[in-house]
Amino acid sequence: MQSAPIGVLDSGMGGLSVLHALRRAMPHERFLYYGDNANAPYGPRPPEEIRALTARTASALMERGVKALVIACNTANSAAGDMLRRQLPIPVVGVEPDLADAHERAGGKRVIVFATQATLALPLYRDMRQRCCPDAVSIPAPELVMMVERGVLSGEGPEAFFREKLRPWPADELGAVVLGCTHFIFLRPVLSSIIPGVPVFDGVEPVIEDLRATLSRADALAHSGAGGVELLSSSDEPGIRARMRVLLAAEL
Ligand code: DGL
Fold first, then answer.
1. The whole model's pTM is what?
2. How far is the CA of 25 from the centre of ligand 1 (A)?
């Protein structure tokens, strides 16, 4: 059990940002990453479709004998997290918008949330916003997902997007920004260069803590060995693995 890999899934490239952090936090673990790039983006799809796609990706990882599943996609976790937790015989953890921590740090100033259309519309986020930060401004950002899928992590595209969307709030009115989509974590350096000093929350740390605690309780943590990563994708586009490796190695 301890030496079995941990499955990590996303609609495409976004979850590689989570995998990057997992690798650093748990260096002895083996990770099997599945990007459903052939079907990305998930954000504009209806919940039933996201659930079906996520279930298929989870099965592909289950067939490879993973000991736990990390849903490294806010959209997939919002639509299918509870379903997979009920159905699968292994621990399932998932990333969600870190609104509570952002609200606490914002000190009464404005909290902005960037996420996919689906994440913003599904009950997980709606309930969370209602509960802990009803004044948060929710901004759908499907354009950013496609930029990251294409490997665009800097330059005019993401910069102009953030400048335009944040224009209504002077920097001193901004309390915190939540990246409610794992693709956007790759764009944090661009965002932070536009709003220096404003804290940015990505929800990854709670996932790592949750995974570590869950595996530890089951005595399934790997304590030795070199660990490693295997990258899988539903897309057969030439060069996709190379692009995944570049993203996994990106400075975050
Ligand atoms: N990376 C995903 C997320 O965290 C979704 C992007 C998409 O496929 O629309 O929400």
1. 0.97
2. 23
